[in-house]
Specification:
With 265 residues, the chain is an all-alpha fold. It contains ten helices and no strands.
């Protein structure tokens, strides 16, 4: 079932709230306590005069606020992509159905269009908004009014192109998230380098833990942001492929199941 724009908007808001709650809860209960424990252990070893390696565990890499924000946006984008992919898969089911119930060899004349249109108009309103029923209904109505097969083909093409443009425009939020994730990573880089420069005098005195920790913020935030961005871009391109195939397959479906059956006399 195709949902209204308001339902989709509410879904996005709820998905964002759930992402914030789940990710932040995981950070305050698992990630940051473990990262803090590792940091304190390093300070103790350094205070004892032992040479220690800077921790590169997963907790230390993702512990900062920038990485948390990136994961929140990633889960949010994944939820939106999953929502739209589910809609696309539901629409593809209509490519396997024979909505017109036309036998091979049957010719559809202009005066027959009302009869075949009723079968589509009898569908629930939410299902009539799918691309396949809309294309068929628009084609039948145009054939009944113009008696031109060429006009029907043009109408189907226009409907599919309009749908393709609409689907592409609906990806604007996902594109924004993909842009925002690396930007947040770069903010973490600037913040980390600034903190490291502020503690340079301590490194001269031999205390390098603070400087290395700040540099870790700088590089880890960008690293995590870029990895997440690559993953979300892969999902978005898979969604675009699904949507483009739906539009192209709909054009082929209408051509095989309707256009080839049309006849003037």
């Amino acid at each position: 079932m195709r949902h209204s724009p308001f339902f989709e908007f509410y879904f996005q808001i709820i998905a964002l709230m759930v992402s914030i709650i789940v990710v932040h809860a995981f950070y305050i209960t698992v990630v940051r306590p473990n990262a803090q424990t590792e940091y304190l252990e390093q300070l103790e070893l350094q205070s004892a005069g032992e040479v220690t390696e800077i921790s590169r565990s997963g907790y230390a890499v993702i512990k900062d606020y920038e990485q948390e924000a990136c994961f929140i946006l990633a889960f949010w984008a994944t939820a939106i992509i999953g929502f739209k992919a589910r809609q696309g898969m539901q629409e593809r089911q209509y490519l396997k159905r024979s909505l017109l119930d036309v036998e091979d060899g049957t010719r559809i004349l202009p005066e027959d269009t009302r009869k075949f249109s009723r079968a589509i108009q009898a569908l629930p309103l939410s299902e009539r908004e799918y691309l396949v029923p809309r294309s068929l209904l628009a084609a039948l109505q145009r054939f009944g009014s113009t008696h031109s097969i060429q006009d029907v083909a043009t109408t189907v093409k226009d409907v599919c192109e309009t749908q393709a443009d609409r689907l592409d425009s609906e990806l604007a939020m996902i594109r924004y998230i993909i842009w925002a994730i690396p930007s947040i990573g770069f903010i973490g880089t600037v913040r980390g380098i600034g903190q490291a420069l502020g503690q340079a005098h301590r490194a001269v005195e031999g205390d390098i833990v603070g400087v290395t920790t700040s540099l870790g913020v700088a590089f880890n935030s960008t690293f995590i942001a870029l990895v997440i961005s690559l993953f979300i871009m892969f999902l978005m391109h898979q969604l675009q492929l699904l949507q483009e195939r739906l539009v192209l397959d709909t054009q082929s479906y209408v051509d095989v199941n309707l256009l080839r059956q049309l006849a003037l006399r």
